[in-house]
Write a structure and sequence with these properties.
With 113 residues, the chain is an all-beta fold. 0% of the residues lie in helices and 48% in strands. The protein has a 5-stranded antiparallel beta sheet with strand order 1-2-8-3-6, with no helix packed on it.
């Protein structure tokens, strides 16, 4: 087994968001996202739940029209089908996110309908 520091090995010049899959299976995908300074995204409307956490820096999200500021260590669960986007990210240090996408299963055996 090999350990890894998610705040090491960072690129010097980040011009666009960088996505790195850290782990995935049929039910979930874990990403490290490095945002460039003052990044602003297009709106997202995802079919899976997304849990995000800021590892470094700061980011401002807009979720259902509400501005939410997240700093180092802050996390947020964004339910599937919730409109959201990034409004701004810090420049020094770069905003680094940990994002967990939880895929909805078609039907869990034994679950009530």
């Amino acid at each position: 087994m090999r350990t890894r520091n998610l705040l090491a090995e960072l690129p010097d010049d980040v011009q666009e968001e960088q996505f790195e899959t850290l782990a995935e299976n049929p039910h979930a995908r874990l990403l490290r996202i490095i945002s460039p300074p003052h990044f602003r995204s297009e709106p997202f409307l995802q079919q899976e739940d997304e849990w995000v956490m800021v590892l470094q820096g700061e980011g401002i999200l807009e979720v259902r029209g509400e501005r939410i500021r997240l700093g180092r260590g802050d996390s947020l669960l964004i339910p599937a089908g919730t409109p959201h986007r990034v409004l701004d990210t810090s420049a020094a240090p770069h905003c680094i996110w940990l994002a967990l996408h939880l895929h909805a299963s078609e039907q869990t055996p034994g679950a009530e309908v």
